[in-house]
Design a protein that fits this description.
- It is built from 29 helices and 28 strands.
- By secondary structure, the chain is an alpha+beta fold.
- Among the domains are: 62-256, tricorn interacting facor f3 domain (Immunoglobulin-like, Sandwich), CATH 2.60.40.1730; 261-510, Neutral Protease Domain 2 (Neutral Protease, domain 2, Orthogonal Bundle); 513-618, Immunoglobulin-like.
- The strands form eight sheets. The protein has a nine-stranded mixed sheet. It has a five-stranded mixed sheet with strand order 14-15-16-18-17, covered by helices on one side. Strands 26-22-21-28 form a four-stranded mixed sheet.
- Helix 10 (457-470) packs across helix 11.
- The record marks 441 as: Transition state stabilizer.
């Protein structure tokens, strides 16, 4: 399931990079779903191997299902929430017992019987335990059901469609005439199938399903399998029986949706969405057909079902969901209009389809034994969201986005005090929800990508084929994957230095990741590599050790293409490499940054790298150029590296043209801006930013260019944001003028620069302009545009405007959707002191109402999330005092987590420490740089130099 919004986060890069020093929350496009230092993910190796006692949330293994017949009746076309159901569960008794224990949630059981063969059914006595959501059905005769006997349990029940986007729930939209239309849909992962029908709601409890939906003949029903036309009639839709599958992958939708259909290699695919959006379905349909084909080719395993549908849901809390044969999505991740949608939307749709389609094998075809191994499906889905998209659209170069979004995001969030391991035992639904974090997604995807490259794609691909075919239609643990890759290495005659279970297990069984320290011997040309656990706090010591693959490139052999491991640290602290390096040539480890670790070099090598970047930047791979800055920032912010190294490195940027380096630089600059915004010498910082960004800004401008390279459009947006942040007059004027032209003369803003124009234009807008954008948000039914507008409205620096914006989160008479209400505060408080104070004033008065908003998935409360997020942006005593006063008010409420006050105070300390460590050396270097003439070049001269550098660099 796509819990995180995948995409380029132009306006929130600072949050991603700052997750280390400031412990910021997750990506700002969705409510925060993870943190790493708040006590949620305490590493506990023993908990991974033995369940917790008192109470045990796992079902007893006395009974197992083999088949479900589900019959549901709904009048959702009238907006009626009540539904009625009957489920017949074929069960086998693994042990002799008098009772059956399964799950139910928010259901009223009206009858419970059991039958053996053709004998008369007998009544069962139902009892319910709310804490564990256990429905126990007890035999009234007190005679045990015999071991290995097979029975059919029948349960009649009724329930209510939920309003929180979970389980079997109600969604709405307005049709072309402004009338409210209703639909019923599902979201079952992880523990919500039990809301639609009583079931054995654990991922390893696979069974087959036959589903019957009773509904208005004016509506249609769709589900995992094709319709059984022989058994169906108007208003009664019966579906073909599924293969055996987990309960959380069952899905059904009752709606008036329309669809577009395509067929590739005899496999039909359909896109379903609300009427009037059929013209926006084509991109998702074409991408789906291409991506599914590429995945089946790579795995060497055909798609297992006779069809696959995708549906765009108006109200959807997650990003998307991989229901087998019926994937569901937020509308903004499914609908693409070639005239109005952005390149970001186009990219997101392909990427998220690839994520959900990868799950059709990893998670569906082969399930996970328990949520302990969530990474075993989400990590693969993350990795193949890029591998499959790259296979379908190789001209894009999407691995740059993998690097900036997932790889760097994982490194930031996996370096706290006590990061949790990938394999991590949990039981409670709330604990399971909290596993949907960067560890299960981005880190797991990055670790799998590392081994994909280290062992070669040939071995990795063969290993995945082995894993899928050996465990098909069953549930697996990580050892099954390790064994499959081990076998693949033998089949491919590929020599590996240790057992796969030891090498990969060292990454799955312990949290965090290593820091490689490289020291060169400039006399004999050799170098040593030493590993230690990396933490953002450099004072933390750990005895962790990993099996680490690595490789390297040099100035005289700057070939970054072959990413296979040439060397290993095999669970040892240090290794020496007998290279013959010249004294004046740079050394760079980890080609294309495929290894999941950070690398610190001796100061002389850093200087050689900087010299190489300045004079011949394109000899170094763009993802390495990005990561060199990313690592240098982290090292300088934690007293591991002189700040001058990073700042001197940034001076190469006037000759940079690629997205990943610019996105990384943008993140660093935004962190600095966040902390230095109120500094007396802030102008010096702005001048430096202006110097490094002016060439790329003048080269790309603020106007979209049809036909240019995919990621050049992303780079333009970074350049616009940085140029306006730097106070470059042309940027401020042109963005404001574009917004005014829209408001006053209805001159459309090109979709690909909308976010930048809206945000930077709103920083200096009148109330009329602000109200225009605000009303556009409320009137729009384009969810991707709504996302842009929400993020942009928070850019205002006018207190009155911001008060109106944040207050709308609790105004239930406006047009905000359920999942949008808790996303309004972050764009405001993360944009500066004015927005932060507006959020503070709002929460002071309305904290309870805000806390009562539906927070969606993740097990956290909107108020708790907002306070944690705001604490990461509090840089002065007044902010700290006000926020602590609010914490004192709310800490004993149902909205606050037990450790809220502790986390807030820790974030305050982190911010103070950051300023203490970084402010003076940063400003000293910047002032010295300016005084030495570094920032005195005229814009025209900078532009000329940039062009010359670009031309010359490409000759080498």
């Amino acid at each position: 399931m796509q819990r995180f919004v995948v995409g380029v986060l132009y306006l929130t890069a600072a949050v991603i990079l700052a997750a280390g020093p400031a412990q910021a929350a997750s990506r700002a496009l969705t409510p925060p779903l993870y943190r790493d230092d708040n006590g949620w993910f305490q590493e506990n190796p023993n908990a991974r191997v033995s369940p917790r006692a008192d109470p045990d949330y796992r079902l007893p293994n006395t009974t197992k299902p083999t088949h479900y017949d589900i019959d549901l009746s709904t009048m959702v076309h009238e907006g009626t929430r009540a539904f009625v159901g009957t489920v017949k569960i074929h069960v086998t008794f693994e042990e002799a017992t008098t009772s059956i224990v399964l799950h139910a949630r928010q259901l009223i059981i009206t009858a419970a019987t059991i039958q053996f063969g053709t004998t008369a059914p007998e009544d069962l006595e139902p009892t319910y335990e709310e804490e564990r959501e256990f429905l126990t059905l007890t035999r009234k005769t007190n005679t045990p059901f015999p071991k290995d006997s097979q029975w059919v349990v029948t349960l009649d029940y009724n329930g209510q469609l939920r309003l929180d986007n979970g389980g079997f729930y109600l969604s709405t939209y307005n049709d072309a005439n402004g009338n409210v239309r209703h639909l019923a849909t599902t979201q079952f992962e992880s523990t919500d199938a039990r809301h639609a029908f009583p079931c054995f709601d654990e991922p390893a409890m696979r069974a087959t399903f036959t589903i019957t939906m009773r509904h208005s003949p004016s509506y249609k029903a769709i589900s995992n399998m094709p319709v059984n036309t022989m058994e169906s009639s108007p208003g009664v839709t019966v579906f073909q029986t599924t293969p055996n599958m987990p309960t959380y992958l069952v899905a059904f939708i009752v709606s008036d949706f329309e669809y577009t259909e395509g067929v590739l290699n005899s496999l039909p695919q359909r896109i379903y969405s609300r009427p009037g959006t059929e013209g926006d379905q084509e991109w998702a349909l074409v991408s789906g057909m291409l991506i599914l084909e590429r995945l089946a080719e790579y795995y060497g395993v055909p798609f297992a079902l006779p069809k696959i549908d995708q549906a765009a849901i108006p109200d959807f809390a997650a990003g998307a969901m991989e229901n087998w044969g019926l994937a569901t999505y937020r509308e903004e991740y499914m609908l693409y209009n070639k005239d109005h949608s952005t390149i970001t939307t186009q990219t997101n749709i392909a990427n998220i389809i690839a994520h959900e389609y990868a799950h059709q094998w990893f998670g569906n075809y082969v399930a996970i034994q328990w949520w302990t191994y969530l990474w075993l499906k989400e990590g693969f889905a993350t990795l193949f969201s890029y591998k499959a998209t790259d296979a379908a659209y190789p001209e894009w170069g999407i691995w740059q986005q993998f690097h900036t979004d997932d790889y760097q995001g994982a490194l930031n969030n996996d370096a706290g005090v006590s990061p949790r391991p990938m394999t991590h035992y949990v039981q409670k639904p709330q604990e399971i929800s909290r596993l949907y974090d960067t560890v299960s997604y981005a880190k797991a995807g990055s670790v799998l990508n590392m081994w994909n490259h280290a062992l070669t794609d040939t071995v990795f691909q063969r290993g995945l084929h082995n894993y899928l075919t050996a465990n098909n239609f069953s549930a697996a643990v990580e050892d099954k994957l390790f064994t499959a890759i081990q076998i693949a290495s033998k089949e491919e005659n590929y020599e590996i230095p240790a057992k796969i279970e030891d090498m990969m297990g060292s990454w799955t069984h312990q949290g965090g990741y290593p820091l490689l320290t490289v020291k060169r011997n400039y006399d004999d040309g050799s170098f040593s590599v030493t590993q230690q656990a990396f933490h953002n706090n450099e004072t933390i010591n750990s005895d962790k050790s990993w099996y680490i693959p690595f490789n390297y490139a040099t100035q005289s052999n700057a070939d970054f293409r072959d990413t296979e491991a040439t060397n290993y640290l095999l669970n040892v602290k240090s290794v020496s490499v007998g290279a013959k390096l010249g004294k004046e040539e740079w050394l760079i480890l980890n080609k294309q940054s495929t290894g999941y670790y950070r690398i610190n070099y001796d100061e002389q090598n850093w200087k050689l790298i900087i010299n190489g970047l300045i004079h011949h930047p394109f000899k170094i791979h763009p993802r390495n150029r990005a990561q060199l800055m990313h690592d240098a920032y982290r090292f300088s912010a934690s007293n591991r590296l002189n700040h001058a190294i990073l700042l001197e490195m940034l001076t190469y940027l006037p000759s940079e043209v690629e997205y990943a380096p610019w996105s990384t630089a943008n993140g660093i600059i935004n962190i600095y801006n966040r902390y230095l915004g109120g500094d007396n010498d802030y102008k010096v910082f702005q001048e430096f930013v202006a110097e490094i960004v002016t060439p790329i800004y003048e080269k790309l401008g603020i106007n979209d260019v049809p036909g240019e390279h995919h990621y050049q459009k992303f780079t333009r947006n970074v350049a616009i944001n940085m140029a306006c942040l730097a106070g470059i007059n042309s940027c401020l004027k042109e963005t404001n003028d574009k917004l005014k032209d829209l408001v006053e003369h209805d001159v459309a803003i090109e979709p690909n620069v909308q976010s930048q124009i809206y945000c930077n234009g709103l920083k200096q807008s009148s109330n009329d302009v602000f109200d225009f954008v605000y009303n556009k948000l409320m009137d729009s039914d384009d969810q991707a545009l709504r996302r842009i507008l929400i993020n942009s409205l928070g850019c205002s620096q006018n207190k009155q405007q911001l008060d109106k914006f944040v207050s709308s989160s609790i105004d239930h008479d406006n047009e905000l959707r359920v999942q949008e209400r808790s996303t309004l505060l972050s764009p405001a408080y993360s944009r500066g002191l004015t927005g932060w104070m507006a959020c503070m004033d709002f929460l002071d008065k309305h904290w309870d109402a805000y806390g009562n908003l539906n927070g969606g998935f993740g097990g956290t409360n909107p108020l708790d999330d907002a306070i944690r997020g705001m604490s990461s942006y509090a840089n002065n005593e007044e902010q700290e005092n006000r926020l602590l006063a609010l914490v004192a008010k709310v800490k004993n409420s149902v909205h606050a987590s037990a450790n809220l006050e502790e986390v807030v105070e820790a974030n305050f300390k982190t911010n103070r420490d950051w300023l203490k460590i970084n402010r003076d050396p940063l400003m000293s270097w910047l002032i010295s740089y300016r005084s030495n003439g570094g920032a005195t070049l005229a814009i025209s001269t900078l532009s000329m130099v940039s062009v010359i550098l670009l031309v010359v660099s490409r000759l080498f």
